[in-house]
Specification:
Keywords: Membrane, Transmembrane, Transmembrane helix. The chain is built from 25 helices and twelve strands. It is of the alpha+beta class and 642 residues long. A hairpin with an 8-residue loop joins strand 8 and strand 9. The relative contact order is 0.11.
């Protein structure tokens, strides 16, 4: 790209759509566009007649780097990178899953199938009894991704929930990067090379790659740049009511993707704006009226649209208050900010042990080079108010992400500030390690500021300056460049399910009980149900619910404790067949009656299938093999009196 073309690509508002207000955090450098070449041919003196053109001769058109073509190339690069990251799953969506963890993909596929039932059968969207029967599951309290699942209904119907899952992961990564690029290049930074660098890191940071293993709801952040932009617009809006309405619609849509990420966005914007106003109080005198009016309109409209869903979430059946103790203190180790993420070019899973709660929550992991360069950028541009505000915001949430106990290489040092915030309303439902996602975005925007400033340096040899800038970016970003997610194979859905043989046994209000019973570590039966668009109910499953099924209690993973579920889980893991006495048989049969079980199903390929078969036979008698499962028809044992 020539200097003239670069200047044209970064000219403020050149590509902004008509009717949209551009908002810059600080004035961009003044640039002078070179005159465009003449488009008309000047008059020519009379000349001799030209010779006829050679047959087949063609006019050669010179390629022009237009703004639209540049944007399309950038968007295409993001999409190719996302396909590269998910390529292992795309090879066989139904038979492969990310190797680092396998429970959440089955849960997401279940939610995608629920969206099909919402659209085709008008099923209630915020609660379901299709798993954890008969208690059911509060879907608003379990991130049912309705804003993603409903648009994906055609894909789910045509290709199945496994294809929908990997599609969402791919589009989540690419869409997040593309959205940040559009907002930064057109409305905030207004410099395409700088915006591309920042958008790349927003979409493919180690934290995003980590969550790509199993959290499409977390990596689908394509609305967040527009929410940030609309809030910035409000600070100088002349039409705060209209702008407040637009913001409310974005907020409402994001609430049905992931409420935790929406809360993070609000907190980050609040801290950032406070950091700016503290440094330049005169900004507040002009910003508070439109900002206050717009936010009031946004709160009123979004509050009205979300009132009933939030009522179901916090006061409806199977609502819980506060997260499970198992995840409440998920925090980053300080050293995690200096190590590369596991799914990156320079990453090492073994080196990252104990630096994060697990491999799906690597919410820091910038690597030494990027961490040092980020600090260097802040020092270099320390006179810039926005840079100082970004640095303060990133540091604030980096500290919160360390959790209740701050540690260095797994050695506890001091009590963290999160200890005093974890019990506050709303914050009691936050996983603290994920505050690192906010720090990732602030680092990305700092990179954009540095690239834009380096591009505009008034030095003798600009080409050399830009080469040095590119070298610095390679040094910072190459160690954490995205690599394809590691995958592992999983057992296919049994033919007994895919051939619809279960339909002759299971009625509308009955359940299909798998062996082992569905739970956090055994989510395959949720995939079975999802493959049928949830046409049969299952007991148990992987979800968050109040302890012991009592609405309003603190949350835990799974439903009420199950004796038969625990017993079968132990047999599956140990291979030892217990000897059941009459008391245990009566207790376990009562559980089957509570679930209104129609059949008990054990796949032939299940781990320790033979000890599990002998155990079930002690309880309900001999089973029979049907296709690729052992089957026990228990309707006579569990039928309820008329």
């Amino acid at each position: 790209m020539t200097p003239a073309e670069t200047r044209g690509a970064s000219t403020p508002d050149a590509a902004a759509p008509t009717g949209h207000r551009s908002v810059t955090l600080d004035p961009p450098p003044v640039t002078v566009a070179e005159p465009e070449p003449a488009t008309t041919t000047p008059p020519q003196p009379p000349a001799e007649p030209e010779a006829p053109a050679t047959p087949g001769a063609r006019r050669v058109r010179r390629w022009r780097w237009t703004r639209r073509r540049i944007d399309l190339i950038v968007y295409g690069g993001f999409l190719l990178a996302a396909i590269w990251v998910t390529s292992g799953i795309w090879a066989d969506p139904a038979g492969r899953v990310a190797a680092l963890y396998s429970s959440d993909p089955a849960q997401v596929q279940f939610f995608l199938a629920h969206s099909v039932r919402v659209v085709l059968h008008g099923e209630f969207p915020f609660f379901t009894e299709q798993f954890n029967y008969p208690d059911g599951v509060n879907l608003m309290a379990n991130t049912a991704i309705l804003a993603l699942g409903i648009p994906m209904v055609p894909v789910t119907l045509l290709f199945g929930p496994a294809v929908s899952f990997v599609t969402l992961v791919t589009l989540g990564l690419a869409g997040t990067a593309a959205a940040w690029y559009r907002v930064l290049s057109r409305h905030v930074i207004r410099h395409r090379p700088a915006a591309a660098v920042a958008a790349w890191f927003c979409g493919f940071s180690p934290a995003m790659l980590s969550h790509a293993n199993w959290h499409p709801n977390i990596i689908s952040q394509f609305l967040l740049p527009f929410i940030v932009w609309r809030v910035l617009v409000l600070t100088r809006s002349t039409r705060p009511v209209r702008d407040g309405v637009l913001l409310a619609l974005l907020v409402t849509a994001q609430a049905f993707i992931n409420e935790e990420i929406l809360l993070f966005t609000a907190l980050a914007l609040g801290v950032f704006l406070i950091a700016v106003v503290v440094q330049q109080r005169e900004r507040w005198t002009t910003a508070w009226r439109p900002l206050g009016a717009g936010l009031a309109v946004c709160a009123a409209l979004a509050g009205a649209l979300l009132a009933y869903p939030l009522y179901v979430q916090f006061a409806g059946p199977m609502a819980y208050h506060g997260l499970s103790d198992a995840v409440r203190d998920y925090g980053n180790d300080i050293a995690a900010y200096f190590a590369p993420g596991s799914p990156t070019f320079g990453g090492n899973e073994r080196a990252n042990v104990n630096l994060a709660p697990n491999y799906s929550e690597e919410n820091a992991f910038f690597g030494w080079s990027l961490s040092l360069i980020a600090v260097g950028i802040v020092i270099w541009l320390r006179r810039d108010v926005i840079v100082r505000a970004l640095a303060a915001t990133g540091l604030f949430f980096a500290v919160l992400s360390l959790g209740e106990r701050i540690s260095w290489w797994d050695r506890e040092l001091v009590t963290g500030p999160w200890e005093f915030l974890v019990r506050l309303p709303l914050l009691d439902a936050v996983v603290p390690t994920r505050f690192g996602l906010i720090t990732s975005v602030t680092v990305a925007i700092l990179l954009a500021y540095a690239v834009r400033r380096a591009w505009a340096l008034r030095v003798v040899d600009r080409r050399t300056a830009r080469k040095l800038t590119a070298a610095g970016l390679i040094l910072a970003l190459l160690p954490i460049a995205p690599m394809p997610l590691r995958v592992t194979t999983r057992e296919p859905v049994p033919k007994f399910i895919t051939a619809d043989r279960w339909r002759q046994y299971v009625g509308p209000d009955q359940t299909l009980v798998s062996v082992p019973v569905p739970a956090m570590g055994n989510t395959d039966p949720m995939r079975w149900a999802a493959s049928t668009n949830l046409d049969f109910k299952i007991p148990g499953g992987y979800f968050l619910a109040p302890r012991n099924g009592v609405t309003g209690d603190p949350g835990r993973f799974g439903g009420r404790p199950s004796g038969i579920g625990e017993m079968l889980r132990e047999v599956s893991s140990t291979g030892r067949t217990p000897k059941l006495d009459d008391r245990q048989r009566r207790r376990y049969l009562d559980e089957l009656r509570h679930w209104n079980a129609a059949v008990v199903v054990l796949p032939l390929a299940e781990q320790n299938a033979e000890p599990l078969r002998r155990t079930v036979e002690q309880l309900v008698g001999p089973g029979r093999q049907e296709l690729d499962v052992w089957l026990w028809d228990v309707r006579k044992l569990t039928s309820r009196p008329a």
